[in-house]
Amino acid sequence: MAQTAEPDSSASAARPAMPMRHGPDSVADLAERLLDAVVNVSTTQIVADKRSVKPPKLPEGSPFQEFFEDFFNRRGRRNEPNGGVPRRVQSLGSGFVVDGENGIIVTNNHVIDKADEIVINFNDGTKLTAELLGTDSKTDLAVLKVKPVKPLKSVKFGDSQKIRVGDWVMAIGNPFNLGGTVTVGIVSARNRDIRSGPYDDYIQTDAAINRGNSGGPLFNMYGDVVGINTAIISPSGGSIGIGFAIPSEIAMRVINQLRQYGETRRGWLGVRIQQVNDDIADSLGLDEAYGALVAGVTPDGPAAKGGIQPGDLILEFDGRKVDSMRELPRMVAETEISKDVAVRVLRKGKEMTLAITLGRLEDFENGNKEDEQVEEEQEPEVAQTGEALGMVLAELDPALRAQFKIDDSVTGVVVTEVDPVSPAAEKRVQAGDVIVEVAQEAVATPADVEARIKELADDGRRSVLLLLSNGTGELRFVAVRFDEIAEPEDDKEPAQ
Predict the structure, then answer these.
(1) Where is the domain boundary, 241, 261, 281?
(2) Are 141 and 197 contained in the same domain?
(3) What is the pTM of this model?
(4) How many domains does the chain have?
């Protein structure tokens, strides 16, 4: 597998001394050594001119009506994608050289997305046209290649895992197309999830990052790249001291795959997971909230073949503890395809270890379809009703399926009403939800639900875990606490 290259001799000079306790006195020597490895990425995209002006409103039968309609119709046809006048749209970003011999440059995917032409502008004024080797939208990374006349100045990746909150870092980029710009700050936080993708694990910094810094490197005080600047939070578009960088730990793996294959090759487990909160942890008998709760399993996927079931709580993956739900997708994606991994799960109060052979995520995303299942029609029966946890329950029948638009593939007990001041309402349970399981036991009638809840209450449980489905079959877990349930009043009207 291709590896990101070591820098040339000019970039591997002796590391500077560690910064002073109160911050570095100067980063001039460090910046001078690194500036030439940071580039400006200029892109051009050809788009059809879709600008249009609405015709004026004229009285019906006006002598000018026919003239204006003819004029604007001709103008509209000229501005259509197939007949309009094309425009050149340009954008700017930053990048950096990781292999000077082979001309390999790293930047953000959003910097070069949909570009027809990519030009790399170097610090000495040199301009080279770049070839796109590969992109990954999930981590917002792209790898480019130029043909250098001579070896380029390059930098190397450092270990982002060693970065601590409070460490000094330096960003170099090309904001506002002003040329190489250096800013310095500290690591404000780590492991930030800004919900930009499935593998968010950003380094947050207060080093000024502005428009045009995207794709540029974030250096530690040794001159190693520990992050790739990619996003900011700002109401004005300028820096307010909240910037985010992709950690080198994540970036290096993706970059190596893009260099070698032109695409990513991530592991795939085939589960839909949910965060474990304190209520869910309590309903499962856990002292602390951790792990990833399986809300759904892809038919014929690796997890299904290995025996993972909805309701399983994944505690460990390949020997690593799953502290939170969002850690599992990264663990799986970073694992080699076709590898046999041990997955430790908690199922109905018992721990077990399952052997799973991972698939490839991209194969599934590129068109593997789930087989449709057709169930045989059954004779309708008289529907049962019941009440529990502030919910009015009913047995599913054709009329209720039609009323709440519930697919035939969904089975369980339908919720027809929810008391707005009940604990179920606080967990956003609503009419039309279907209870599939109660405490990891399948239910088919309201009596099943009531009996299972009574059993748990008699066992001293403080909450009950419900597996709910919406009308299309999408599953989620909610935990409802028993100690929030009010006693029913005698004069309360019976459920209809």
Answers:
(1) 261
(2) yes
(3) 0.69
(4) 3
What residues are annotated to the active site? Answer: 110, 140, 214
Q: Find how far residue 450's CA is from the centre of its chain.
A: 38
Domain CATH code at residue 294 = 2.30.42.10
Enumerate the known binding-site residues for substrate: 110, 140, 212-214
pLDDT of residue 421: 84
* Final residue before a domain boundary, out of 232, 261, 290: 261
| Binding site feature residues | 110, 140, 212-214
Tens-place pLDDT, residues 315-334: 999 999 999 888 999 999 99
pLDDT class of 9 with cuts at 50, 70, 90 = very low
Q: What percent of the chain has pLDDT over 70?
A: 79
Dihedral sign (CA 400, 404, 405, 411): negative
Distance CA 483, CA 464 (A): 11
The neighbour count for residue 424, using CB atoms within 10 Å, is: 23
In which domain, by residue range, is 98 found? 26-40+92-261
CATH code, 256: 2.40.10.120
Same domain, 233 and 144: yes
Q: What pLDDT is stored for residue 250 in this prediction?
A: 94
Contacts of 186 (CB under 8 A, 6+ apart): 165, 166, 167, 168, 169, 205, 206, 207
On whether residue 204 sits in a domain, the answer given is yes
Query: What per-residue confidence (pLDDT) applies to 386?
Result: 80
User: What per-residue confidence (pLDDT) applies to 263?
Assistant: 93
The pLDDT of residue 13 is above 50: no
- Give SS3 for 403: helix
